[in-house]
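User: Just a sanity check before I run the rest of the batch. Below are the structure tokens for the first item. I only need the designed sequence back.
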């Protein structure tokens, strides 16, 4: 145990210098088939029962896409997507699909449970496939950094599925802040009704339930260790269980925290402190509140961002009417010395100055600053397709942006297990400076099943 801990801490030191990823990935070159900008992108889909259904539905109807294959471990859960494209080849195992149809696939959409993101993404990218990867990008910080290194090494086109980043709302907030309209930021709030799935101090299932005949449960487990099947976990509730998901923050915050992170150019937090309800080795806590602190930047002083889940909201937000706050199941607020900006869901939608009468007044006075940041017109998935075809970076590129927002979110999620303790994070060192145990949690708590990894260099 001590030997493993030392190895993990050495990893943290070396990744801060940017050398380890390249050392492990030496010899891994992009073998992506070049796609003519005037041709179609051949896309395969992995994980099509939940969020993947809507991603596939969008691209099935896009004239720049040639959909070539579908992959899912659960025929029942995937059936509504199968009905949309009954003639496409169907697979249960992504390894088999990529082996048999690799030459016909340019890119893959990955929308599986969190624990399978990293193994599938590394498998596809190592074969030269562009990837669209649902949020959170990975289940652990170690996986996030390794995937970032692979994206840098291969130069493939990548996209994190936090579609709010491709929308205009955070850009509105950014322009209002940088113009001085809202004054200096005093505090920030983010609240959510997540979890809307089974989450809490659950124990390992008792094994009394039979696996449905339509589900290949061994393939669903992927790199995770064997645990008895439970319908309280598969196919929808896995987010609340530590072997597979990343809890409420992992599900929600790559959307909602990006509204602050990108709009205000926050950088990584310097301090993180969470108060959590009861949890187990197997289950995430039912409720958390987290306080992030960010270092001063330019003329901006240090500022704090307050997160709360399980439908717990701030007691009050300056300039936001209590009855308006009560109606917002998910939302965020940036409180400035002059104005307050709010958004009304996890994507930053309906960003506006509050109260509403003040927003109307500013518009009538032509007091809102000009729109200087570029806007994306197409959907997030289509933005990725166009980037693949043009050779440009997508909005949520893994190497230059998404790995950072993902790591920010995962730092908050892992602080859950140090309830009441303020963790100090140094972004240059890439580690917490006052809690080695928290740094150890950058890694998986279990050994990956190697048959689901393309190479041992992707195995801890």
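Assistant: Here's the designed sequence for the first item:
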């Amino acid at each position: 145990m001590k030997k493993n801990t030392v190895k993990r801490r050495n990893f943290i030191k070396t990744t801060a210098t940017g050398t380890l990823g390249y050392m492990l990935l030496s010899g891994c070159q992009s073998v992506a088939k070049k796609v003519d900008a005037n041709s179609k992108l051949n896309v395969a889909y992995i994980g099509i029962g939940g969020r993947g259904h809507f991603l596939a539905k969008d691209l099935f109807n896009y004239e720049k896409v040639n959909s070539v294959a579908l992959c899912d471990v659960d025929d029942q859960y995937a059936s509504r997507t199968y009905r949309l494209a009954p003639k496409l080849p169907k697979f249960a195992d992504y390894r088999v699909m990529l082996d048999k149809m690799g030459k016909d696939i340019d890119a893959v959409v990955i929308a599986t449970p969190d624990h399978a993101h990293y193994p599938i993404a590394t498998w596809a990218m190592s074969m030269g496939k562009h990837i669209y990867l649902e949020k959170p990008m990975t289940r652990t910080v170690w996986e996030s950094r390794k995937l970032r290194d692979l994206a840098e090494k291969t130069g493939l086109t990548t996209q994190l599925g936090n579609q709010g980043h491709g929308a205009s709302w955070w850009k509105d907030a950014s322009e209002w802040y940088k113009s001085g309209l809202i004054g200096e930021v005093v505090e920030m709030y983010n609240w959510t009704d997540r979890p809307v799935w089974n989450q809490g101090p659950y124990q390992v299932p008792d094994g009394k339930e039979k696996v449905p005949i339509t589900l290949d449960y061994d393939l669903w487990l992927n790199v995770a260790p064997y645990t008895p099947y439970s319908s309280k976990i598969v196919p929808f509730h896995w987010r609340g269980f530590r072997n597979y998901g990343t809890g409420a923050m992992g599900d929600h915050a790559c959307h909602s925290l990006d509204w602050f992170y990108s709009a205000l150019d926050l950088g990584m937090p310097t301090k993180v402190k969470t108060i959590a309800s009861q949890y187990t080795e197997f289950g995430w806590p039912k409720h958390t509140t987290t306080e992030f602190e960010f270092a001063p930047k330019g003329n901006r002083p240090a500022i704090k961002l307050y997160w709360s889940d399980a439908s717990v909201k701030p007691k009050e937000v300056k300039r936001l009417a209590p009855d308006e706050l009560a109606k917002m199941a998910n939302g965020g607020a940036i409180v400035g010395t002059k104005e307050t900006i709010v958004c009304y869901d996890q994507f930053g939608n309906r960003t506006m100055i509050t109260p509403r009468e003040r927003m109307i007044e500013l518009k009538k006075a032509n007091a809102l600053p000009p729109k200087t940041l570029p806007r994306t017109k197409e959907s997030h998935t289509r933005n990725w397709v166009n980037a693949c075809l043009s050779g440009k970076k997508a909005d949520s590129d893994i190497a230059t942006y998404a790995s950072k927002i993902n790591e920010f979110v995962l730092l908050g999620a892992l602080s859950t297990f140090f309830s009441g303790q303020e963790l100090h994070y140094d972004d240059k060192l890439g580690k917490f400076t006052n809690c080695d145990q928290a740094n150890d949690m950058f890694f998986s708590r279990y050994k990956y099943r190697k048959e689901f990894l393309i190479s041992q260099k992707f195995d801890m």
